[in-house]
Amino acid sequence: MSVSNWKHPAQPLAYQRQNAWERMDGEERNQAFLFSEDYKRFLDSAKTEREAVVSALALLKEAGFCPLEALPRLKPGDRVFAVNRNKALIIAVIGQSPPENGLNIIGAHIDSPRLDLKPQPLYEEEGLALFKTHYYGGIKKYQWLAIPLALHGVVVKSSGETVPVVIGERPGEPVFTISDLLPHLAKDQMEKKMADAVSGEGLNILAGGMPVAGGEVKERFKLAVLDQLNRLYGITEEDLISAELELVPAWTARDVGLDRSFVGGYGQDDRVCAYASLRAAIETVSPARTALTVLVDKEETGSNGNTGMNASFFANTVAEIASRCAPGYSDLLLRRMLAGSRALSADVNVGLDPNYTDVVEKMNTARLGGGVVLAKYTGSRGKYATNDAHAEMVAHVRQVFNKAGVIWQTGELGKVDQGGGGTIAHLMADYGMDVIDCGVALLGMHSPFEVASKADIYMAYKGYKAFLAG
After folding, report:
1. Is 383 exposed, middle or buried (0-12, 13-18, 19+ CB in 10 A)?
2. How much is the pLDDT for 327?
3. Strands across the sheet with 441-443, in order?
4. CATH code for the part of the protein at 20-112+266-469
């Protein structure tokens, strides 16, 4: 066809990236800012997976959800939840359609990279008391030096009593830190590769520097810290062996930028998607298909353990829901339910950073402010360990989002062979369901201070809500 005969088509031929702020009207912009205020409060209250579950349960109970075990029979409109060892959570809103027609599922994770205290962490050296740590998840170790850290977690005493611990969050409380080497003496350190400049065994926490009285007492600096812990929490050194104590940044989530268009804070991978999907679940009232929101632990270390996506908790809970919905429950019914389901793996993606454009391929990289991100595949190298969503599933989500006015974009995790990463998508797909990754783009992913656009956070919530209702 010659150029002179070309007519403008009814539908645009070329795809154009869109900026969410430019498409949102004043009311929707205001809603995005209000939503982010609630989100920041959630981030501050949920710096560990246990705290995320506690915060989520408070919102669910306020919204009228009840424990799954409290209802022997389920009917359309019922709203229930199930908790796994205080570290994972499944939320369900029973739909109008029979369960064998499948579910609409959103799965996010509530664990984040951090520093864990070792089982026997406390020692003293050269007049200082220190804690030994083991880092959790993928971190750049140097980013955790010379910043204020707070200690969060639980200690389970030999009596079975569980003692919650939080030190370093309230005004006036002491914080912890890992000292860095002064640049005046760092010649050899600065000649090393960044990955080698700080060793994993070198991430030792400054815990105290004042000895107990009595020069004849051994390990006086260590004992002084133990005395403080005993006074505060009634615990002994042996109790630390049965403890889960995590060091996280001591700062709060903050607005970033003069226009306050971003949220900066710790743990946005993946609590930004977890919170957006939690709010979407709470606001889902009468879905066509049963809506399931899954918040799991251990994603950052491979999704193993009995609180990760690999665990039987997911399938067991779906079986419990199915048996309460369908009198003729069977294992075959469960398999049909799962295979007929659709799921969003709600996890974050990389946002294009003008400072580091050489590690991404711009055409296929998400932008902050471009809306929620659809990622057909993750993985590394030749799409290793990916789900790689089918074209039909991608089209379905596009239709749902477009119909609901959700602003979305596509993304991938860096250039081919540059690196990569995985999500829980392939583990969900193992059940036979169709899955696509869908989340928020971040700058500084896995750093102690990640950055997300308020527009993208709001569009993730809006997209998850539309998906659950469909």
Report:
1. middle
2. 79
3. 254-256, 262-265, 450-453, 441-443, 349-350
4. 3.40.630.10
3-state secondary structure string across 81-92: EEEECCCEEEEE
Residue type, position 144, single letter: W
**Residue found by looking up tokens 């599922």 in the block:** 105
| pLDDT in the model for residue 470 | 81
Question: Which residues touch 307 (CB under 8 Å, ≥6 apart)?
Answer: 49, 84, 85, 87, 88, 296, 297, 298, 313
For the chain, the structural domain boundaries read: 20-112+266-469, 114-249
**33-72 residue pLDDT tens:** 999 999 999 999 999 999 999 999 999 999 999 999 999 9
Q: In what order do the strands lie in the sheet with 205-208?
A: 162-167, 149-156, 243-249, 114-125, 128-136, 205-208
Q: Measuring CA to CA, how many Å separate 236 from each of 133, 150, 168? A: 18, 20, 20
Tokens (6 digits) for 336: 């049909």
Residues 6+ apart with CB under 8 A from 61: none
pLDDT tens-digit map of 310-347:
999 999 999 999 999 987 889 999 999 999 999 999 99
Query: How far is it, in rounded angstroms, from Cα 90 to Cα 218?
Result: 50
**Residue 205's closest CA among 243, 246, 170?**
246
- The answer to whether 324 touches 134, Cβ cutoff 8 Å, is no
Q: Are 420 and 380 in contact (CB under 8 A)?
A: yes
- Measured CA to CA, the distance from residue 239 to residue 156 in angstroms comes to 7
- Architecture of the structural domain at 114-249: Roll (2.30)
Give the 3-state DSSP-derived string for 182-203, with helices as H, strands as E and coil as C. Answer: CHHHCHHHHCCCHHHHCCHHHC
What's the one-letter identity of residue 336?
A: R
The interaxial angle of helices 26-45 and 49-62, nearest 10 deg, is 130
pLDDT tens sequence across 209-227: 999 987 778 899 999 999 9
| Total Cβ atoms within 10 A of residue 285 | 10
> How far is it between the farthest Cα atoms of the chain?
99
27 to each of 21, 38, 349, how far by Cα in Å? 12, 17, 27
- What does the pLDDT average to over 140-152? 97
Helical H segments across 128-216, by residue range:
187-190, 194-197
Nearest to 42 by CA among 31, 56, 61: 56
Based on its alpha-carbon atoms, the radius of gyration of the chain, rounded to whole angstroms, reads 24
Beta strand segments in 370-440, E: 372-375, 379-380, 408-410, 420-421, 434-439
Residue 245 pLDDT exceeds 80: yes
